[in-house]
Amino acid sequence: MAKMNFGKYAAYPAVDIPDRTWPDKRIMKAPLWCSIDLRDGNQALPVPMSVEEKLDMFRLLVSIGFKEIEVGFPSASAVEFQFVRKLIEENLIPDDVTIQVLTQAREHLIRKTIESVEGVHKAIVHLYNSTSAVQRDVVFRMGREEIRNIAVNGTGLVRELKEASGNKGIRFQYSPESFTGTELDYALEVTHAVMDAWGPSAEEPIIINLPSTVEMSTPNIFADRIEWFCRNIVDRDAVLIGVHTHNDRGTAVASAELAVMAGADRVEGALFGNGERCGNMDIVTMALNLCTQGVDPELDFSDLPRIRKVYCKNTRMNVHPRQPYSGELVYTAFSGSHQDAISKGMKALERDGNGLWNVPYLPIDPRDVGSSYKAIVRINSQSGKGGIAYVMESDFGYEIPKWMQSSFGAVIQSQVDLNGRELLSKEIHDLFHGEYIRLYEPYAMKKCHINWEDEDPERDDEVSTTIACTLQHNSQEISFTAKGNGPVDAFVRGVQQHTGLDFSVDEYAEHAIGHSADAKAIAYILIKDASGRESMGAGIDSNISLASIKAVLSAMNRL
């Protein structure tokens, strides 16, 4: 077997912080959120969004509850600039929402960016330049001092232009891009120089965003870097520490969560993790992770199907069926053991729940994010009898008794194997009716009259029911009158006396289908003949006695 060429890669350096405190922390409050869908997410699309598509997405983000939204890179293209101007000139930005615009630390780009936000009520100008060792050496061929000067000069120009505009609603954010590839001491040195150039205060703090532009380490090491940075930065009360994690190693959410535990105040992310390479941090996942721990995420994802629809329409991207919380299949169980556990959990929740969600295999109530219970259990070749019974109960109100579930389960599995695909709930319902309800051969009911005379209400064993029936057996009619201690007993006695069939009723169950005054009843029967063969049947009628007799007929025909 060929081996991976792992020797060409070096381990990411650890952080010397033996007294780290973040492992003992818990997230008890949502961080400040910033959506980057319209900028970082947009630049990663094969076909970037138009102005109207960006506006549709902006409205979606506002409806979710984002208070800070990075709306674009206005110096990068005409569309980006036009979109920012449209938001401002047409007064489309709610009073409680701050837009954010991104710019590289280059003079003409900074000037264009400040021009784009003229007249805005609240905006964050987000300045960045790359500080990593490999970018310094390979891309820019500059030393530490030169790279630091780019950041300082850019910051100074933003401050100068802000003061010239007289707009006190403009705030400032700086990102040492490729923070994960930057030496910690140097990242801190550049940040302090930027802070000196800007002059932040506790009343008007600067945002220092520490991005894992490329995810290069395990989340715990990223958290170490954030804690080290939070400890060593000056004037901590004048700084909001933010993180912007990418998903190159598949742990962007974990990195962001641990970073918040390590002291980060603010998190940037995108819906469903949209972004370059493997994407940005999925802000839906992180927010709903908080929700499942009893923490208010301060974002509204109660209608994920709507959010997913708007997102897919405007980005032309799909949401994976297994995307955490958001995918179409994440609340669906095909496995028989999972289905059985979910079914029991749902019943226990309804029966004796204390108000807290606690259902096996479902970390969140699907209804809380806009899904329904109808898709929790779906039937394929991996499903079990419990899952099939759950579908029949949840979708149609049929409470198939345990002693019948194996029999019907075998019917369903046979059909699944034949079709080679998943069965829809309606198909399962129709198979039940075809197997148990719509059976008219060899015996069919023509007439049935039941008379009940209870001479002693205190007794429960007296023969008080008389039944008069006419059955069709092939081309013959069989008529009889019989007595018993109930309709089923009387009917069975009459059948045994007039057909020669010999069987006993070993199991019986019944219930109403629905709760209205005109609800129908369903009965389930298990009979056993003299040789020990078992047969099960079911019957439906508005009269429970007739439903029970139809169930016996069903079992007779199947026998």
Write the layout of secondary structure elements.
Layout: E1 32-35, H1 37-43, H2 51-64, E2 68-72, H3 78-89, E3 98-104, H4 107-116, E4 123-130, H5 133-140, H6 144-165, E5 170-177, H7 184-198, E6 206-212, H8 219-232, E7 239-245, H9 252-261, E8 266-269, H10 283-291, H11 304-315, H12 336-352, H13 385-396, H14 402-419, H15 425-437, E9 443-452, E10 465-473, E11 476-484, H16 487-499, E12 503-513, E13 520-529, E14 534-541, H17 544-558
Helix pairs in contact: 2-3, 2-11, 4-6, 6-7, 8-9, 12-13, 13-14, 16-17
Detailed description of the structure:
With 559 residues, the protein is an alpha/beta fold. The chain folds into 3 domains: 35-315, TIM Barrel, CATH 3.20.20; 336-433, no CATH class; 443-558, 2-Layer Sandwich (Double Stranded RNA Binding Domain). It is 40% helix and 19% strand. The protein has 17 helices and 14 strands. It has an 8-stranded parallel beta sheet with strand order 1-8-7-6-5-4-3-2. A 3-stranded antiparallel beta sheet has the order 9-10-11. Strand 7 (239-245), helix 9 (252-261) and strand 8 form a beta-alpha-beta unit. The radius of gyration is 34 Å and the shape is elongated. The model has no long low-confidence stretch (mean pLDDT 93).
